[in-house]
Amino acid sequence: MDALQSLLDGFSAALVPANLLYAALGVLIGTAVGVLPGIGTSLSVALLLPLTYSLEPTAAFIMFTGIFYGGAYGGSTTAILLNTPGESSTVVTAIEGNLMAKRGLGAQALATAAIGSFIAGTIGSSLLVVSAAPLAELALGLGAPEYFAIMVLAFVSVAAVLGASRLRGFASLGLGLTIGMVGLDPQTGAQRLTFGVPQLIDGLDIVLVAVGVFAVGEALWVVSRRSAPARPIPVGRPWLSRDEVGRSWGPWLRGTALGFPFGAIPAGGAEIPTFLSYVTERKLSRRPEEFGKGAIEGVAGPEAANNSSAAGSIASMLTLGLPTSATTAVMLAAFTSYGIQPGPQLLESQPALVWTLIASLFIGNTMLLLINLPLAPMWAKLLRIPRPYLFASILFFAVLGTYAVNAQPLDIAFMLSIGVLGFVMRKFGMPTLPLVIGVILGPRAEVQLRRALQISDGDFTVLVSSPFTVVLYVGLAVLVAWPALVRALRHRSREAISG
């Protein structure tokens, strides 16, 4: 009851007109920067940080959380319509979302993403109220072997499930892991695969890789098939049918359940739960044949996981003072600049600020739905722009966003080179998502593996030293062996019938 009363007090403060204005401003800025590839919510919060010093802390953080939630949704717009993820966490949304858009279901895909974001954000914010501290305590109990096992699960799941060939999937994953190794060794500081280029010392930014593979690769692929007549793509209806809602509600809830705990752990972030959500929905779907052609479940689940993860990362920042994403890291710096220290004592030292901030999550999430759901048909009309203009715009924003990451002109050359690689992979039927997940999670997995081996003095049995890791690896073995077992059982049943 104390939490509920505190939340009601938070709503009374967050619903002040000035705070509502800051929430709306944050949501609009977040949606806009989510649409632009490469800008990102963390960069937006960092750029706005000096401008908010004159504001009260409550108003500043209300705007920051609006940017965070808006960016989590905004990146899905271009991911769905143009196959250009604005955020690394919307990479998975592009897989089925863009295929839906090409089938004339762009508005439905955007509506699914908006509703899923609203549901996941609302449930995630509610979980933040009642269970932030227990979840953070659980996360502290996981060690390096557990984090490494989680990442191996993501690697194998995506590489084994996507594409027509497992060999091509693992080859794509290998390319991603190789690209992820570019830069400095995290322990020794030795340069790896930099070829004497100083700009590669810090590695290749994931936004650069994602924009190159998806945006540039898609543009080159379409240009290479320019002889194919362009068909007019219908916008689609601005609402979901009963069947579409029925197919989406399960993924919405499962994505929410995956996203929140992963957002709260240091090795989490939105990338892992969105990948796992996609794999889960592909396995559980009653219409698996639609995956790879534009399945609505492949949009609903990852988008819910994305927004729920945002709530989880805020929970970890507030209760532990532990940022689990780039955006919450910048927000933590903002707390420090105001002389406020997030952590277990924050609820006691700054209860009004914390509960107003949590209440603003509910308000900003509702604003996102009210703003973006009616605009879905308008956004979908982007697909009616003539292809030369459309892809010229994509390349323009890809170059702009890539340059904005580090302000290095050479990054543009790297992005274009990776775009050519994405085009070649697509031409030869290699899935691109394993490459991206290898780049994102490869360095993290290496750090956790080395940390585990350091703790155990090089004893590899530490990787299976807990029930949690054993369960994950057994699940992986079943996942990898399952198709062979099914084929063997079918062959045996045929022999029995023929015999």
Automatic annotation (TrEMBL):
Keyword annotations:
Membrane, Transmembrane, Transmembrane helix
Q: Where is the DUF112 domain?
A: 20-437
Coiled-coil regions listed in the entry: none
Q: Does the keyword Transmembrane helix apply?
A: yes
- Residue ranges of the TM segments: 20-49, 61-82, 109-135, 147-167, 206-223, 317-340, 352-376, 388-406, 412-441, 462-485
Query: Where would one find the signal peptide in this protein?
Result: none
Asked whether the UniProt record includes Magnesium among its keywords, one would answer no
**Pfam assignment, any one:** TctA
Mind telling me which InterPro entries this protein's record contains? DUF112_TM
Q: What is this protein called?
A: Tripartite tricarboxylate transporter permease
